[in-house]
Amino acid sequence: VSSQNHETHYQNCKQGINQLVKMPDPGVIEFKALHKQDKKLFTVYFDFECLTVPFSTCSKKDTSSYTEKYQKHVPCSFCIVTVSEFSEYNSEVITFSHENPNVVTEEFISQLANIHDKMMKCYEKNQHPIDMTPEDEKKFKSATICHICNRKLNWESEKNYPVRGHDHLKKKNNFRGAA
User: Fold this and answer.
1) CA distance linking residue 78 with residue 85, whole number of Å
2) Phi-psi domain of 140 (left: phi exceeds 0; alpha: psi -120 through 50; beta: other)
3) pLDDT in tens, 108-128
4) DSSP characters for 122-161?
């Protein structure tokens, strides 16, 4: 620790400052998970309950480090909660218990498949094609920056060319921008 750092620390402590917040310089931290900024249309929460069943393993080895397994988690029940942004989707709470852990696991997978099917049917009914005004089309054709990531659009690219980004859930005026 340099004497300058020590002196700064000492002066802050004398003033009762017990925490300093130092933010990074601009450009050091950047939000890159752009796919996470949109509201999620469906969410599934679930939880397994397990019994911890004791069991014994081989004898201890004195020569090396190891983890001693002494119990096994055996599923006995689960709860699933579904929610959606769509008003016509029937959110549900599903609970299931059984003494056979294989039955619990199989039922859980079956329920998830059913939930997926219901969500996809609801989504397919509620997505809409792009609806652009002539003004939107002009904005698209003259765009130079992606409306999502703020990077320069490459109109010359054969694989990564700009597209008309739109909100699939709105029926009218759903153009968002060039992406």
Assistant:
1) 24
2) alpha
3) 999 999 999 999 999 999 888
4) HHHHH-------HHHHHHHHH--B-TTT-PBP-TT-SSS-
User: Contact 174/131 with Cβ under 8 angstroms?
Assistant: yes
Quote the mean pLDDT of the chain: 88
Q: Is 120 helix (H, G, I), strand (E, B) or coil?
A: helix
Taking alpha carbons only, the member of 70, 48, 45, 75 closest to residue 60 is 70
More confident residue, 110 or 71: 110
User: Rounded distance, CA 135 to CA 118, Å?
Assistant: 37
Cα dihedral 114, 116, 117, 120, rounded to 10, equals 160
- Residue 157 token pair: 């690219």
- Tell me if 89 sits within 8 A of 121, measured CB to CB: no
